[in-house]
Amino acid sequence: MKKIIHTDHAPKAVGPYSQAVRMGDFLFCSGQISIDPKTQEVFTGDIKKQTEMVLSNIEAVLKHNDLNFGHIVKTTIFLTNMADFTAVNEIYGKAFTAEPPARSTVAVAGLPKGVNVEIEVIANFAAL
What we know:
Layout (H helix, E strand, L loop, with lengths): L1 E4 L14 E4 L2 E7 L14 H18 L7 E8 L5 H11 L6 E6 L9 E8 L4
Parallel strand pairs: 4-5
Antiparallel strand pairs: 1-2, 2-3, 3-6, 4-6
Helix pairs in contact: 1-2
């Protein structure tokens, strides 16, 4: 059975989608961007700071479901500039120190709200 997930500790959806959907043992998290969940303000500055904010928003959705980064089995990173890959990878690597998930990184022409990085994840409740 499909269960829609929402937490006030992550940004509100900026369109007709859910923050996450649980289906069985899997949690499919919509892409997160650098929006402060307290103010709903978008941050478009330093790419490392954007990435930290994105990962913090992902963590909030995971925590709402009693999960952590260790439960993530797949990520997709969207970048508007592949020149940011090294900086994003540096911050991303701090969240996934042991047994990192499978990952794709894709260059895109643009992202919502003018941000430069978006990350979506799939987590599994039985992953640990």
